[in-house]
Structure formats: C-alpha cells, structure tokens
Specification:
The chain is built from 6 helices and 4 strands, in the order H-H-H-E-E-H-H-H-E-E. It is mostly helical. The chain has a two-stranded antiparallel ribbon with strand order 1-2. A two-stranded antiparallel sheet has the order 3-4. It is extended, with a radius of gyration of 29 Å. It starts with 31 loop residues before the first helix and ends in an 11-residue tail after the last strand.
Length: 191
C-alpha cells in the first residue's frame, strides 16, 4: 500500500509562477486611417494575386490571400464581407453559399450592379430553404409566394403608417368611444 504522503491528493499544488505568461490584452480597434491603408493594400494584393493566377478560381472557390486570417482579418473583418463592402470586386455566386468567385471591377457603379447585397441574401435564403425543407415537400412556388407576402405586408405597413394620424400614447379609445387613460399596472405580490 502506498503511503498517504506520496498520494497525488495529498501533494501540495504548485503555486503559479509570478512571471508566468498570461493572455495578451485585446488589441484596440484600428483607427480609420489604419483601416483605409489596409483596405487599399488588401485590394491591391488581391488584384495582383488574381492577375498572377488567372486559373486559381476554376474550382469555384474564391481566391483568398494566404495570410488573411492572421494579418488582414483582425483589421478588415471576414473576407466575404470585406469583398462585398469594397465595391472593387464583382461576386459571381456558385451552387453553394461558400462557392463564389471574385473578379476585379473597374468602376464602383458596375460593382454595385453586379454584387447587389440583396441578391446574395435571397440566394442564401433559398439555400436555407433547401436545407430546412425535406426534398419531397419543396415547392419553389411556396418560397416565391412567401417572398411576395413579405413584400406586400411591408409595403402595406409603410402606406398605413404614413396615412394614419399619430395617436397620443396616453389616450386609448374604448368601446364606448370616449378616450381614457391606459389602465394602471398591477403591483407584483411579494412571496
């Protein structure tokens, strides 16, 4: 039988060293000037990479800078969101949300036409519908009908909000037709 002095439970725990490394303090957010400088460098690097490797996106996957996650992402954010926000690239969607290719665009006006964010959001909604609904129950007509319903409800809500006069929050009309103050809230009972 081992003695209790040798048991791991009885041994004293080692005290942490005074100069032991701790987690690094979080970096402050980048300044606007720093973010602009990194944006220009990233756009130039991506355009250069696409020019040097024209066949790199043939698989349907986008060209991403090799060190994006370590060097660029902390300042510029996720790659896809960065590409969508710059207006320097057109995005061509693939079969899945992760499949897309990017191409440089000469003018920001052309980029806006080609990479409208609402188009990619509808594409993502459709992909989500395909994922969530069993194959035998899928009906593109249902998807489109719901999209139409959402748009007509939003438009109708805006029209009614503009046409209806603003009611005072303190007055509420009752069945009798007279305006009354709203009922007072009951106090919670103490247990």
């Amino acid at each position: 039988k081992a003695s209790s002095a040798m048991s791991p439970k009885a041994s004293p725990k080692a005290a942490p060293a005074a100069n032991a490394p701790t987690k690094a303090a979080p970096c402050p957010p980048p300044s606007a000037e720093e973010k602009d400088a990194y944006t220009k460098k990233a756009i130039a690097a991506i355009k250069k990479g696409l020019a040097e490797n024209p066949d790199i996106q043939k698989s349907g996957q986008p060209y991403v800078l090799e060190n994006w996650s370590k060097e660029w992402k902390p300042i510029l954010g996720p790659f896809r969101k960065f590409i969508e926000s710059t207006g320097a690239f057109a995005i061509t969607e693939g079969a899945r949300p992760s499949d897309y290719i990017i191409t440089p665009v000469e003018s920001k006006a052309a980029a806006g036409v080609l990479t409208a964010p609402w188009k990619s959001q509808i594409f993502k909604a459709w992909q989500r519908y395909l994922h969530d609904v069993v194959k035998e129950q899928r009906d593109p007509g249902d998807f489109i009908a719901y999209a139409n319903k959402v748009t007509t409800e939003k438009i109708a809500a805006k029209v009614t909000a503009k046409a209806a006069p603003e009611a005072k929050p303190a007055e509420v009309k009752r069945k009798g037709g007279a305006a009354e103050a709203p009922p007072k809230k009951k106090k919670a009972k103490k247990a």
